[in-house]
Write a structure and sequence with these properties.
Largest sheet of chain B: none
Oligomer: heterodimer
Number of domains of chain A: 1
Helix content of chain A: over 70%
Number of strands of chain B: 0
Low-confidence stretches of chain A: none
Shape of chain B: globular
CATH architecture of the largest domain in chain B: Orthogonal Bundle
Largest sheet of chain A: none
Low-confidence stretches of chain B: 1-12, 92-97
CATH topology of the largest domain in chain B: Arc Repressor Mutant, subunit A
Radius of gyration of chain B: 21 Å
Strand content of chain A: under 5%
Strand content of chain B: under 5%
CATH superfamily of the largest domain in chain B: Winged helix-like DNA-binding domain superfamily/Winged helix DNA-binding domain
Shape of chain A: elongated
Structural class of chain A: mainly alpha
Order of helices and strands of chain B: HHHHHHHHHH
Mean pLDDT of chain A: 92
């Protein structure tokens, strides 16, 4: 697995459950790749930020 | 369109006060309009959705003792109205056109971010984002986030907001937008790549503006 494939799966992980094989390959890749680990954290952060954005619209 | 006016004559309910607070009502309208416009890019439709949500709040005024409760309620109505509008709206523009935007997108984006063998280009590697609290509460951060959302190609922004703001299920988005799941996954992936990069460049890695 390369970074292009890993980042796509990291995005899809937010939209569908990954299968066992995908989880394993992704786990192996992110263990050795700091950039993809950061990407993983950041797309999750985008989700948190979006939720807050909607909240913020209400409470500004 | 005029602002929602309270009807005279009928005896006002004890909670009517929240609607007589002009400043609160106007501010609420502005916030709602901003939220609706971001997703429904038609001012009239967005105005109508806001108006309808305000009217249902007005009709259910007895339920709200506090402004905060009214806000939460009126926003959930608005959210559903926006989903309805997006469901009804027929797209006249070819999907490919909607991928165009002020920056590189689509395949070109992927090519710019990754090397031929699929590794991050050195200059494009994600940097460490500071503690998320670093400014997320801050007004300037939200301006940057707004600008990044608006810079997304229409198709990316629309699907991203359906998924992340309106929290629609992917199956529902596909059905509504006549997309295959593969197509949706790829588009959300590209939207996240663009948004991530935009936030990094303009907020997380930008010079502090103190």
């Amino acid at each position: 697995m390369n970074c292009k494939q890993a980042t796509q799966l990291l995005s899809e992980k937010l939209d569908r459950p990954l299968n066992a094989k995908e989880k394993v390959s992704l786990g192996v890749h992110t263990t050795i790749c700091v950039s993809c680990r950061r990407f993983s954290h950041q797309v999750e952060e985008l989700r948190t930020i979006s939720k807050r954005y909607v909240e913020e619209s209400k409470s500004e | 369109m005029t602002n929602a006016s309270t009807s005279p004559g009928s005896s006002p309910s004890p909670n009517m006060g929240v609607f007589f607070d002009v400043e609160f009502t106007q501010e609420l309208r502005q916030q709602m309009l901003k939220f609706a416009l971001l997703q429904v890019r038609d001012e009239q439709l967005a105005e109508d959705a806001v108006q309808e949500a305000m009217i249902s709040a007005y009709q259910n005024i007895d339920r709200f003792a506090r402004q905060a409760a009214l806000k939460t309620w009126v926003f959930s109505i608005l959210k559903n109205k926006v989903i309805d509008l997006l469901r009804k709206e027929k797209r006249h523009t070819a999907a490919s056109q909607l991928e165009e935007g002020p920056n590189i997108n689509g395949e070109a984006l992927i090519d710019a971010l990754f090397t031929e063998n699929g590794h991050w280009q050195k200059s494009e590697r994600p940097r460490k984002w500071d503690d998320p609290d670093h400014g997320v509460e801050n007004e300037h951060f939200w301006r940057v986030f707004d600008a990044c959302l608006n810079a997304l190609p229409e198709k990316y922004g629309r699907l991203f907001m359906m998924r992340e703001f309106l929290e629609m299920e992917t199956s529902e988005i596909c059905y509504n937008e006549e997309l295959t799941i593969t197509n949706l996954n790829v588009t959300l992936y590209r939207a996240r790549l663009r948004l991530r990069e935009c936030l990094e460049d303009n907020w997380y890695a930008a010079e502090p503006t103190s």
